[in-house]
Amino acid sequence: MIGAFLELQPVAEAALGQKVSHSYLLSSRSDRQVWKVVTASGGIVVCRTCPLGYKADIERIVSKLASDSGIGPKLLCCAEYSEGKYLICEEFISDEKPFSDDRMAEKVALQLRTFYSADTSLISQVLPREFSLPIRLRAWISEAKTLGLEGIWKMHDLLPEIEELWAASAPTLIHGDLRPQNILVASGNVRFIDFEHASVGDPRYDVAKLTLEGFKDGSSIERLLHACFSLSSETRRAVNTYAKVHQFAVAVWMRRNR
Q: Domain-by-domain residue ranges, the chain?
């Protein structure tokens, strides 16, 4: 895959202001790649590529917000390159490991509270209306029908409750894909990565995904919810309802890509 980096290398070198010595492909999809890059001075950088558009704008804005507030990797530079492509370079967090410790619930919640208090004005300017969860859920239900996915009518019945929860919430910045792989722990510090799905909405929707994948016991989930929000029957109802949406979205994705 060395040749695949040749197009990107001069852009990365110009943006970073130094030569690249080695590059390693960490992950690849049709529309984006993630590279670990070693500079001639021995520094290590993570380079992410994505197509130009509102998603690239959001990823750049949120990466900058996370960098400035210390809840994400330090953002080094951003640059357009080729035709319709975008590059984001950020620090490589050494000794990092994915979040996997139930005892970190309070630290994760503390960083999430900082994340959810970020200014959303720049994101709101570029975020399309169809990023609203009720609109996306309608699209998933429609797709599920064509895929022959069972249980869609139960989700259809949940739509009014989803619309009510989403409309009544105080919108904040949300990560959009909050799972252990996107929460890194290094030297006891928690930082978030991969803001591809970031948007503005109900933070309880964000945390609902983490309760499904991030914790092994109920007490850790309770501590997380208590530290993030006022723990109430309404919070539990919202998180449980949003968790069903996450499970449904995964089911649609798996059927689409089987």
A: 3-91, 97-256
